[in-house]
Amino acid sequence: MEVEDGGVKEAYEVIKRIDVLDVSVEVTEIWVAAENAYNERVSRLEIQIIARLTDRLSTARNVTEMFRVFSKLNSSFAEQSSKPQFRYLGACHMAQMRDLLPIAGAIIWARQIECQLQTYMKRVEDAPGKGWEHYAEGQKLQSESTAFRKQLDTCPVFEAWVQDFN
């Protein structure tokens, strides 16, 4: 399930170039405009994904075909977000600017991704209904979700930080 995301990347590039430490009125107005443009482009992308997903689900003849659609969506999601590294993201810089330790920023970021995953999995359950994980495609999707959730486990990262700190 491919979706154009060039607009999102362009909007992010605009935000990335803004000096967030400059709190002048002019820069604040530029930030608000760039943030609004970014949010608008992300919203359009979400609408596009929902429309394509709805189209594909409406043509599914049975639950197995529905799971194939969800499996393709999950594969696309996993490719974009498998093992993302916090330190390479803008979220790391934002955590540092808010005077958070990098470990705290990484934990917050992982929890946010986990919440998004939980929301997506709830949406998956809403379409075919309860018991979706008993189907073959559902089991595959459930196992991929569980594996991704394990990658988001922050306990080992925190424990390593505590050992380093000590």
Provide an overview of this structure.
By secondary structure, this protein is an all-alpha fold. The protein has one domain. Helix content is 75%, strand content 0%. It contains seven helices and no strands. The chain has helices at residues 6-16, 25-58, 63-81, 90-97, 102-126, 136-151, 155-165. Helix 1 runs antiparallel to helix 2 (25-58), helix 3 runs parallel beside helix 6 and helix 4 crosses helix 5 (102-126). The longest helix is centred in the first third of the chain and has 34 residues, at 25-58. The termini are far apart.
What characteristics describe this protein?
166 residues, mainly alpha
The chain-level structural class is: mainly alpha
Q: What's the shape?
A: flat
State the distance separating the first and last CA atoms.
47 Å
The total number of structural domains is 1
Mean of pLDDT:
76
| Main sheet attributes: strand count, strand direction, barrel closure | none
Order of helices and strands: HHHHHHH
Low-confidence stretches: none
Radius of gyration: 19 Å
Number of helices: 7
Q: Layout of SSEs?
A:
Elements lengths: L5 H11 L8 H34 L4 H19 L8 H8 L4 H25 L9 H16 L3 H11 L1
Concise summary:
This protein has 166 residues and is mainly α. It has one domain.
